[in-house]
Amino acid sequence: MEVGCPDCGEAVAVPAEAEPGDLLDCPTCAGHALRLTRENGRWGATLAHRVSCPSCNETLTLPDGAKAGDAVECCGRRYRLTFEYGAFAAEAEEA
Asked: Which end of the chain is more exposed for a tag (fewer CB within 10 A), N or C?
């Protein structure tokens, strides 16, 4: 089984043990993963954007529907999401 990346169209193999909601990496794209969906017995995928924590570099997977201006937390700090050039970034909130 394969799904097409919604961004670049690359075919990505779906592991036999996959469940809806699992994340797969697209070998071509950077800055997001594929979140698996299953409808009427067929696999699909939506983009699952990712950002790096500015403090520790941990990769955070954003929830569906994330948008610029939303807040994310890591390392006990809050960061504001920005979106430019087709990718999200996390920036420290101003005090």
From this structure: C
